[in-house]
Amino acid sequence: MQFKLAAPAALAVALLAALLAPQAADAEELCGLTPTPKCSGHDYSAVFRPAERGLDFDNLPGYTRSAHHSDHALIGVESRVFAGQRGWRSATTAHIISPARGANFAMYLADMAEESSAEPARAGVERFVLVLQGEVTVRHGKKDITLGANSYAYFPPNSTDALSSEDGAGLLVYERVYAAGGAPAFSTGDVEESPLLPTGPEVFKLRKLLPQTADYDFNVHIMDFQPGEYLWVKEVHYNQHGLLLLEGKGIYRLGDSWYPVQAGDAIWMAPYVPQWYAALGSSPTRYVIYKDTTLDPLLG
Ligand code: UGY
Ligand code: MN
After folding, report:
1. Which position among 38, 110, 122, 221 has the lowest Cβ density within 10 Å, counted as fewest Cβ atoms?
2. Where is the signal peptide (predicted)?
3. Which CATH class is domain 8-292?
């Protein structure tokens, strides 16, 4: 059956159609996969991207591997916070591990800008500095000693040696209240010139940057693993650790947690936390690790 519209009704329909027409045109311009002059298009390629591109964790909102437990902490590279610090001029520090979380030492990164400097550590505090980038000058007595990347310096408690950087530098610093009662001495060196030490059943390469005598209440080890190498001993010991992954990636086991880790990540290990590492990926791992080696466990 056909209807014939009366003239006013036909007019109303025509008006309605005219009103709706622009919306229909807009609807056609809703962005699809194909770009149009008005629309850049969507991109769904991430869904079927090649598996070898792997996961894209680059600044995923709110995501962090960082974790904080009573016997260990992982401070992912994404979680550092730099701020001004007493004694550091034109520099900021990120205190990654400190007595504030139960450690017997402080471990921090210092980001020194041009024309920056650092006063000596507080009285009674010893300091170890590893240069990660740039150059610093140590004022040792009347001598200026320049340290480039991969070199280190140890300042015994009550040292009056200051640090400065003309063009900027990035440092890893360990500090602790000296507790050994001996006579530790100022020293500097280059990581690569420090001799490789025997490691028993372990396959990693080991260097210890401080003398292994009772004058020192901690040591700083450099450990190198080829991809696929791992700790043979599933370590549990009374010593504390402050670790910074300098190169490579792998899996760190801490207690009952297994963490994917990469260069820049830092780890705090409390006494007796079960610890184990496997180097993975296609390039070697190097990490630097604080260990309160010769400290008498009875004295804490
Ligand atoms: O010396 C150490 O305790 C060292 N091997 N620990 C570690 O790498 N987690
Ligand atoms: Mn250990």
Report:
1. 38
2. 1-27
3. mainly beta
